[in-house]
Amino acid sequence: MKCPFCSHSETQVVETRISEDGDFIRRRRQCGACEKRFTTYERPDVSFPSIVKKDGRRIDYERSKLMASMQLALRKRPVSTEQIDSAIERIEERLHNLGLREVPSTRIGELVMRELRKLDKVAYVRFASVYRSFEDIDEFKTLVDEVRR
What we know:
This protein is α+β, with helices and mostly antiparallel strands. Helices cover 45% and strands 19% of the residues. The protein is built from five helices and six strands, in the order βββββααβααα. The strands form two sheets. It has a three-stranded antiparallel β-sheet, with no helix packed on it. A three-stranded mixed β-sheet has the order 5-4-6. Strand 1 and strand 2 form a beta hairpin. The longest helix has 18 residues, at 81-98. The protein is globular.
């Protein structure tokens, strides 16, 4: 594997860990030239359904988009990267298990909200307030009241 810092082609695996659920392998690597360390993840390559946006466009599933939206909601919250990775793995597993060729983006939004609610209530409210496009403060208050229960 090529070093992301200096592009040297020889790196050494210094530590390997299997995730708790066994869905991926995390490897710590060290560059032979600059000696910097970095992490890689090894997971099976599976095809995901196309995502159907609200306007009817179809796009390919991108893990990075899902990760970015969850990280934005979880910004400055006490949730580890491992917890986020596990939540994304659960979402991807559900998408794969649906067995569909196309999935509406709203379905993914609901899956994200379910995971965020388990991880962090504040992040859940942040995501839901944008995702559901609240028009007034009463809708927001209803969501907060629902979370408090």
